[in-house]
Amino acid sequence: MILRFKKCHTILALVVVCCMYSAKAQLTDLARLEYSFIPNNKSEDQYTRLRALFNYPIETSKDCYLVLGAEYNRVILNLEDNYPFDTSLLETINIIDVSIGYTFKSSTKWRLGLKFNPRIASTLTERLTSDDFFLNGGVFAINDRTKDESAKKPYRLVLGLTYNSTTGLPIPLPFISYYRRVNEKWSFNAGVPKSNIKYFFNEKNMLQTFVTLDGYFAHIQRPQQVNGKQVDNISLSLAVGGLGYEYCFTKHLVAYMYTGYTFRLNNALRNEDRGEVFKLNDVNTFYLRTGLKFKI
After folding, report:
1. What is the pTM (predicted TM-score) of this model?
2. Contact status, residue 93 vs residue 109, Cβ threshold 8 Å
3. Which residue ranges does the record assign to the DUF6268 domain (predicted)?
4. Residue 193, preceding bond cis, omega within 30 degrees?
C-alpha cells in the first residue's frame, strides 16, 4: 500500500514537470525513442525527425520531487528542389534540451510545479555562439482526482503557462489538459497543445483520434543571402489531426504510431528579427510519428 502511494505521487511529479510543449510526449514518460516523417506533396523534399528523451524523478522530501531530464532531436531536411541558396547548410538541425523541474503539494487537492529548460537549437556547422542558446520554462498546477473514489466524476486537470522560443511559435503558450476515463472502453483528453479521444479494445490495445501542435525554431550558424535578404533562423509550425494506435507490451513499455494529415503547415527561413524571408513549404501533407516509450 505504501509503495503504491509513493508511486502515485511520483506519477504526479512527472505529470507536472513534463508538461512542456515538447511533451508532445505523454506526461508520465521516463524514456522515449521516436521517429517522425513529413513529405512534401509538391516535390521530393522530406522532413525527418529522430528523438530521444529521458526523465528521472528524485524525491527530495515528502510530496516534493526534483525531476532531471534531457532530450535530443535531430531534424533531417532533405531539400531536393532547386533553391536560391546552399541547402547543404540546412541538412541537419540539432535541438538539445536539459530540463530541471521541481514540484510540490500546495494543498490537499493541488500540486504546483516549475520547470527550467535551457536549450541549444542550431545547425551546428560552426562553434557555438549565444544565438544558439535559448532559455525556456513553465509553471503548472495540477488537480488529479482520477484515483479519488469520493469524486462523482474522477478527472485530472492540468493548467500551465510555458515559454518556448524554439517551437516555431515564439510566444507564451498555454498548457491546458483535462483528462477523464469515461468507462472501461473510452477516455478523452481535451486541451492545448493536444486533444484526443481514446478507445480501449483492452488494456493492451488502444486506438485514438487526435489533434496536436508541433514544430521547432533553430539558429542557422552560417547566415545566407536569399533574394537579397539575410536569413539567420529556420522554423516549422504545424497543426495535425489523425489516428493513433498504442500497444502495451507490459504495463510500462508501450509501442505507438500516429498518422494523420496537417491542416496548418509553415516551414520558413527567417531573419534575425524572425520575420519570414523565404517559405520552404506551406502545403498540407501526410504526417507519421512512431516510437517506443517507457512510462511509470
Report:
1. 0.86
2. no
3. 89-294
4. yes
79 three-class SS: coil
Evaluated on CA atoms 174, 73, 208, 199, the torsion sign reads: negative
Going residue by residue through the chain, which has 296 residues, state the pLDDT in tens, using 9 for 90 and above: 444 444 454 444 444 444 433 443 445 689 999 999 999 887 888 999 999 999 999 999 988 999 999 999 999 999 988 888 999 989 999 999 999 999 999 888 899 999 999 999 999 999 999 999 998 889 999 998 888 777 777 899 999 988 876 655 567 778 889 999 888 899 999 998 889 999 999 999 999 999 998 888 999 999 999 989 999 999 999 999 999 999 999 989 999 999 999 999 999 999 998 899 999 989 999 999 999 999 87
Q: DSSP secondary-structure letter at 16?
A: H
Q: What one-character DSSP code corresponds to residue 132?
A: G
**Residue with C-alpha cell 508501450?**
254
Distance between CA atoms of residues 120 and 106, nearest Å:
33
Dihedral angle computed from the Cα positions of residues 104, 108, 110 and 114, in that order, rounded to the nearest 10 degrees: -10
3-state helix, strand, coil in the chain (%, to 5): 10, 65, 25
Is there a contact between 103 and 17 (Cβ–Cβ < 8 Å)?
yes
Distances in Å between the alpha carbon of 257 and those of 28, 146, 206, 287?
18, 26, 11, 11
Whether 112 and 141 have beta carbons less than 8 Å apart is answered as: yes
C-alpha distances in angstroms, 9 versus 1, 138, 147, 251, 278?
13, 20, 12, 18, 48
Q: HEC string of 164-207?
A: CCCCCCCCEEEEEEEEEECCCCEEEEEEECEEEEEEECCCCEEE
